Amino acid sequence: MKGLKGLAERILSALGEGAERVRAILVFGSAIMDEEPSWASDLDVIVVLDDGCSDEELLRAWLKLSGLSQSPRPHGLLGHLFWSIEKATGMFKTPFVCRERDLRSLDFERIFGTSKVLSALMAPKKIVLGSVLRTCRTIYGSPPKGLRPPGEREALELLRNLMTCFSLAFGAYFLCPLTGLALKYVLAALKWTVYAVFYYSTRGIRPLTKILRALGSRWPWPWPRLSREFLRLRREAGPMGPLLLIALPGVLNLHLAALGRREFFSRAG
Fold first, then answer.
1. CATH level 3 topology of 155-268
2. φ, ψ at 86 (rounded to 5°)
3. CA 245, CA 268: separation in Å to the nearest integer?
4. What are the pLDDT digits (tens) for 159-177?
5. What percent of the chain is helix, strand and coil (3-state, nearest 5)?
6. Is the Cα torsion angle 118, 122, 125, 128 positive or negative in sign?
7. For the chain, which has fewer Cβ within 10 Å, the N-terminal or C-terminal residue?
């Protein structure tokens, strides 16, 4: 908790005079679940400003805080491509900045600053928001009252997650020959595959390592091997090796297994 308190102080310091508009700072995801640290992970933080903030003020606040992002990017034109992908999808774009009313109404696009078109087509909104609200911790201020995870877990949500994760991993294949940092997109696709399938099955969320180890060899092909490669490369970046060949079928097969038999994944709960 000491490290999280220091994070709140860094956020307020980076905002300067704008810090007086902050109503709450929420941390969610791996940092809260005591997950093993990863070079490919970023800060999972939502900074909530008061409802009087204009869109321009939100943008200025995000620009001030964007320097806190830990996500590695290449330099030059390739770095701009990475930034464009991350801005459109909301991945590796933290800290997220929104208004109180955005969080209160669970306005996905406003909270995560994503493209409205991509969100409508591909974002598994209820799965993401449910995962966030079930793991988040307030490290500064007070969030809006009455926040609760969305209700029904629909198969359509998991199909959208499949589209997103498959597209992310597939696109990374073309970037990997240009930069090893594209590995983080493959790892993100695998991470959100595991999280989304587990949440769809159990309506809960746990650290990746615990989910993967709980099922062990009962995962569908190629996950018994893919899970080991996945955890190895999350700990330390290196040559992709077998991961490059089995990531895409891994993303596809795990989603299809959950859609076909949801209760199978409850064994890890």
1. Four Helix Bundle (Hemerythrin (Met), subunit A) (1.20.120)
2. -70, -35
3. 26
4. 999 999 999 899 888 888 8
5. 65, 5, 30
6. negative
7. N
**Euclidean distance between CA atoms 180 and 194, whole angstroms:** 23
pTM attached to this predicted model = 0.88
Q: pLDDT tens-digit profile of 8-35?
A: 999 999 999 999 999 999 999 877 887 7
Cα separation, 95 vs 54, in Å, equals 18
Kindly list the domain boundaries of the chain, sorted by start residue: 2-141, 155-268
Sequence letter at residue 121 = L
Mean pLDDT across the stretch 223-231?
91
- In the structure encoding, which two tokens stand for residue 70, read together? 């830990």
Q: Residues 22, 48: contact at Cβ < 8 Å?
A: yes
Using the 8-state DSSP alphabet, how is residue 176 labeled?
T
Which tokens belong to 128? 């993401």
Where are the alpha helices (H) located in the chain, listed in sequence order?
2-15, 55-65, 76-89, 100-104, 108-112, 116-122, 125-135, 155-175, 183-202, 208-215, 223-235, 243-260
Quickly count: other Cβ atoms within 10 Å of residue 213's Cβ: 12
Rounded to 5°, the CA angle 25-27-28 comes to 145
Q: 95-122 pLDDT, tens per residue?
A: 899 999 999 999 999 999 888 888 888 8
Only one residue has tokens 């890890």, namely 268
48: enclosing H helix or E strand: strand 45-49
